[in-house]
Amino acid sequence: MQARHGFERLDASFDHILQHIRTKGQVSDAALAHLAAFDDTRVRKALAIIDRDKITLFRSASGRTFALVQGTEREDVVYLVMRHFCTCPDQGGPVHRHQEQLVCKHEIAYALSEACGRPAPRNLSDVAFSDLLLHHLLTEIAPKGRMPDE
């Protein structure tokens, strides 16, 4: 229970930083310093994902979002990322069990991209958004035996 409470406090702190980024429209040095307190290495890797255009954001007409993030070690791998969920192996391991880190680099990249509006999201109808999300859930996750909220 204590670990969960700590996670909620960190999550609120992370949300506060993201709100600051949304307001400013950019990642300031102050925001970077606060983000580094979470995990400097993962923040740097997340920023590299954004800088190298390895992330594609999707937004539905009703405002839901998810991202597809190209693998940094294998470019033929694409991870599906949503708030508190990523299909990467790290998410299924130490991140999921809260043993080492609370979020993976892909989740940080997703959150920062969404906050900065970079890259601009691809706007889809609710039906097209759901179809694309379902396609990636069925082709990327279900065959591996991992579904969200497991």
Summarize this entry quickly:
This protein is an alpha+beta fold and 150 residues long. It has helices at 2-24, 29-51, 89-95, 105-116, 126-141, and strands at residues 55-60, 65-70, 78-82, 85-86, 122-124.
Describe this structure in words.
By secondary structure, the protein is α+β, with helices and mostly antiparallel strands. The protein has one domain. It is built from five helices and five strands; from the N terminus they run H-H-E-E-E-E-H-H-E-H. A five-stranded mixed beta sheet has the order 4-3-2-1-5, with helices on both faces. A hairpin with a 7-residue loop joins strand 2 and strand 3. Helix 1 packs across helix 2, helix 1 packs parallel to helix 4 and helix 2 crosses helix 4. The longest helix is centred in the N-terminal third of the chain and has 23 residues. The N terminus is likely disordered. One of its GO terms (biological process) is double-strand break repair via homologous recombination. One of its GO terms (cellular component) is Shu complex.
